[in-house]
């Protein structure tokens, strides 16, 4: 893998992508062999982070949609109240500065 990585870099590759889950433990070795400036992407880790971000977005959208429905029902009574702050999601525990995520639903991602 290291020899192939070096040849690809010599031929102008900007990024190297590991091709399968069995190569995950080779990432550091390939990075050391080619160059510190060369990006080596582990597809399994990248996919996991992508799926995790989709899960977080889905949870966030569900919470926002539920609040919007609740707000629509109470709009007539709330005419005198101040508008909600744009960063109110942080207070609800959705990964903002004050939150920490304790209120989020937990999901398992299986491969």
Your description of this structure?
The model is unreliable at 85-103 (pLDDT under 50). The protein has four helices and two strands; from the N terminus they run αβαβαα. The protein is elongated, with a radius of gyration of 22 Å. α2 links the parallel β1 (15-18) and β2. The protein starts with a helix and ends in a 20-residue tail after the last helix. The chain has helices spanning 2-10, 27-34, 43-74, 88-91; strands spanning 15-18, 39-42. By secondary structure, the protein is mainly alpha-helical. 5% of the residues are buried. The protein has a two-stranded parallel ribbon with strand order 1-2. It folds into two domains: 2-44, no CATH class; 45-91.
Sheet with the most strands: spatial strand order: 1-2
Helix-residue proportion? 40-55%
Give the CA-CA distance, first to last residue: 25 Å
Strand content: 5-15%
Order of helices and strands: HEHEHH
Radius of gyration: 22 Å
Q: Outline of this structure?
A:
The protein is mainly alpha-helical. The protein has four helices and two strands.
């Amino acid at each position: 893998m290291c020899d192939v990585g070096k040849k690809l870099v010599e031929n102008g590759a900007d990024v190297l992508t590991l091709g399968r889950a069995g190569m995950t433990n080779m990432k550091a070795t390939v990075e050391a062999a080619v160059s510190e400036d060369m990006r080596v992407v582990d597809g399994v880790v990248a996919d996991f982070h992508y799926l995790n971000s989709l899960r977080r977005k889905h949870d966030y959208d569900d919470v926002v949609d539920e609040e919007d429905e609740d707000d629509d029902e109470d709009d007539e009574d709330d005419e005198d109240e101040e508008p909600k702050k744009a960063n109110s999601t942080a207070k609800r525990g959705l990964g903002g500065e004050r939150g920490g995520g304790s209120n989020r639903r937990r999901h398992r991602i299986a491969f």
